[in-house]
């Protein structure tokens, strides 16, 4: 089934997400303790495949299923923004068959879920360089953005051909043009001005960064946006991850004290904790 080209108005009442097959329900987290923006480095597909004697692409297929469940779980718990590291600027260096397999899965995930996500009020955004994606995938990602542009239940940023250094380089290039043409005074620049040149400037800073698969590194993901993120590293390989792991990571977040370099605890959105 191909994507509708024209944006369709979302039904007035968003469709609730399907429940997890186990029947597990989202824990109640007080709104003031809920992270606004969770980012996930979805790692471990290759190792999961190897442990099952399967090709890496089968691991990515399992990873796609995990992604779909996590998106439903994010809606269920009331998360506002979710960033998913789907394909990095460095991932092009993988064997062509693996790269092609991941592209195909991205197509499939969008094709099979976009209409339901739209009915659930999910907004899809693409964060990354847009020049290297195959035209068909680029068209599909941009159609998903157009279709869901006015949704506000959950924003999902698909980080595709994303690298934080590339993002900052692209931002600085655009800012340099504005300086050269006199639109920007370099002496008057503040941090928020640079943030305004990032791929998705109106998304919140990342409150919680989760990485699966047992590795404990950031891998060039959202270096600016995650400057003060709480980090949760999860041993589970991505194909075995589901919404219950996301909820657990969010519960871990609720007991962290964030002080942003000061002494008083600060809640997401910058308000002081009472
Ligand atoms: C990392 O595991 C995973 C990837 C590079 C691909 C992830 C992409 C998906 C799951 C599709 C997501 C779809 C959407 C729409 C967001 P790895 O291969 O590096 O694992 P390894 O460290 O075990 O080798």
From TrEMBL:
Segments of this protein annotated with the region Disordered: 1-30
Family recorded in the similarity comment: Belongs to the UPP synthase family.
Assembly and oligomerization: Homodimer.
CDD domains (UniProt xref): Cis_IPPS
A single BP term in Gene Ontology: polyprenol biosynthetic process
Binding site for substrate: 44-48, 56, 60, 88-90, 92, 94, 211, 217-219
Keywords: Magnesium, Metal-binding, Transferase
Cofactor(s) named in the record: Mg(2+)
Entry annotation: catalytic residues: 43, 91 (proton acceptor)
Note describing how the cofactor binds: Binds 2 magnesium ions per subunit.
Any one annotated GO CC term: cytosol
Job of this protein: Catalyzes the condensation of isopentenyl diphosphate (IPP) with allylic pyrophosphates generating different type of terpenoids.
GO molecular function: ditrans,polycis-undecaprenyl-diphosphate synthase [(2E,6E)-farnesyl-diphosphate specific] activity; magnesium ion binding; manganese ion binding; Z-farnesyl diphosphate synthase activity
InterPro entries: UPP_synth-like, UPP_synth-like_sf
Enzyme class: transferase
EC number: 2.5.1.-
Residues reported to bind Mg(2+): 43, 230
Protein name: Isoprenyl transferase
